[in-house]
User: Fold these one by one.
Assistant:
Number 1:
Amino acid sequence: MTMFDGDFTRRRMIAVGGGVAAAGLLVQGAAALGQSTGPAATGKPMPDGVDLPANPPATVQPGSVGFAIIGLGDYALKQIMPRFAQSGRAHIAAIVSGNPAKLKQVGDAYGVPESARYSYDSFAQIATNPAVEAVYIILPTGLHAEWAERAFAAGKHVLCEKPMALSGAECERMIAASQRANRKLMIAYRCHFEPYNMAAMALMEDDAVGALRLIRTEHSYRMGPTTPSENWRVSRALAGGGPLEDYGIYGLQAALYLSGEMPESISAATYRPANDPRFAEIFAHVSAQLRFPSGATAHVVTSYDSAGLNMVEARGTEGVLKMQPATNYGGNTLTLEAGRNRQELTPGDSEVQFARQLDHLASAIRDNTPIITPGEMGLRDLRLIEAIYASAASGQTVRLNPDATMRR
Ligand code: NDP
């Protein structure tokens, strides 16, 4: 069974950016649509609304880890690159892009030497640049596995954006490549470094809502008109099934880190409207019910076609913990209600999550400290996503082993 059985009929193995999509994951080929997916073919324009620094950073702290940023898109330019200024242990040492004009503009603004500005074709030369110790992959998801393998082959550590890849098999390849290279692999699950989510985890560990009964999460927004050739987020080859991998994964993650359990079974449903170019290749909605060994359940909902909502709620025998928004870059809220008591918590500035995440990998590299969001966590989540799609395709409840593989 594949992730998408039952919903799509035209499927085949494809090569994405020169790499072969993972065994076991059959995806509708971009090649079949006449699209190019590989980075070498891109040269995406500068996104709107990017604020480049007026002056490059003056100094690099002693012992700081040099990162190469690969993929100068929206998230890299607006969220990640500006946050290096708040990191004590990480700095930008190189950039990689398919757009030469952007390489120059961004490289000049961040003080990246010309010799450390790479195209996708010249990326392999990064192996001989000792200033780069880690590569931060901020490419479309379908390219994560291939570029992680290339970074490991160049002898670099890897920080990889979420979702880790498009299938469990791709994640296993990435973990194997990290082990072969003896280099670290971390998944950029920023909520593990975000004060509101960290406080929620601590409250749940302290049984602040009593015995957990129900978790509800929703991550939804309404996507504007688009097509797979215009937008990688609606392309199966680059985004998998769509909203669950991209946005719903925050709710799936929250269900696990708030319950502290792994589901023993999953039942799920997907929906894909006919004749909507946005959903020619991906799902519009995914809804999954996770059942935990304690008897608690989690309802994880995500949509690219409904009014915006970002919320997480954990309800127990004594109270309820509510977060809305729950997993944003900033502005998150956290409320604990127990009986007549209602407490609004303000555990800190959400913005620190970005720099903390960078510092976490830098510390793991410098001090050999454990990574709290390792490749194995990304693999676990892709296995759960595969189980969700398998349940939706079959209409059956899927039973899981403790490592999230499906019980046959
Ligand atoms: P964008 O489309 O804005 O940027 C992606 C960049 O990847 C492009 O600008 C381009 O950079 C490069 N690229 C290389 N090959 C391709 C291709 N075939 N099609 C499109 N782009 C290509 O995406 P985002 O920045 O929003 O997302 C990138 C990654 O970051 C994804 O994995 C996403 O899930 C993750 N993300 C994480 C968030 C979080 O909160 N943790 C939030 C948003 C995104 P260039 O022109 O320089 O070559």
Note: The radius of gyration is 21 Å.
Number 2:
Amino acid sequence: MKAAVVRGFGEPLVIEERPDLEPGPGQVRIRVEASGLCHTDIHAAHGDWPVRPNPPFVPGHEGVGVVDELGEGVTRLAVGQRVAVPWLGKACGRCEHCLTGWETLCESQVNTGYGCDGGYAEKMLAWADFAQPVPDGVNPFDAAPLTCAGVTTYKALKVAGVRPAQLVAVSGVGGLGHLAVQYAKIAGATVAAIDVTDDKLELARELGADILIDARKDDVGEVLRQHGGAHAALALAVNPAAFEAVNAGLRRGGKLVMVALPAHGTVQVPIFGTVLNGTSVIGSIVGTRQDLAEVFQLHAAGRTKVIYETRPLAAVNASIDEVLRGQVKARIVFDLGTGG
Ligand code: NAD
Ligand code: ZN
Ligand code: ZN
């Protein structure tokens, strides 16, 4: 099977031919059909974060495909079933976090495409308890971006406790943001979308955003404050300055939800404004299996639209460059099912 492998941080990925994998106890093997390119995979390949993966590794945590072999003891999934393999590859199931609905905070978790090989491959392994069944009628190319971009933004809105009639700012309308706009609309909010390219702002408008803010020329905080200030702001742009800009547009009691993970990122949060205005800064990491099930359920019901462009896995390095140059409409999904 073919896989795209990170051999060293900052180096181009290498397409390798590898032997097929045998699933261990509790695992399944998946014939991957579609695999999304999340900006996180680029951070992984560049070694951007304090906790780094160990090359060589196969990135990818939006892999979707069909189960083709069951490991010992697996009864939850069947051969032929379509599943998605998210960032949360597995968690312990026993700790305080796992037992209180916060498995995404488990300290023993293994992350797909980071702590174990991921979806940039024709075949991959997954732990059966964490591979998410994809409902009938949801195609693998839609399912792939939902598996991280979807669940992450859906969860970020839950964490912010967004209610109808609130103003939600979505900073960065990329892979994550184009779904965030839609979930905020489903929650009944008014949505202000912020980006730095005309195409992304136009996409946000098509997806239902009510207010468009061009961070190249507009003062983001000022525009949001003119609208009364945001009840919640999702920071999805890979740029610390964008976090600060949107934080300045919160209304009193508003919540900044940090989601993007720029390399070595730190932001300045003014103490006076935060205290006097009673604002919060919250971190939000992906979502649980239940959150992903809900994301798939909404999509199966026709309530979300996934914007993607397909590429062959062989184009992995060019695809990464496209994302870094901001040239992708929303998400690139590698097509592994048709000989790409
Ligand atoms: P992306 O590259 O598809 O989207 C980023 C968007 O931000 C682009 O549309 C870009 O034009 C826009 N942008 C750039 N500068 C901006 C600015 N100054 N103001 C407003 N918008 C600006 O990336 P993505 O795949 O959506 O991922 C975004 C970030 O979220 C990455 O850092 C990724 O690692 C992180 N992420 C976090 C989680 C989590 O669980 N917390 C999950 C997935 C991804
Ligand atoms: Zn991701
Ligand atoms: Zn745990």
Note: The two ends are 12 Å apart (CA to CA).
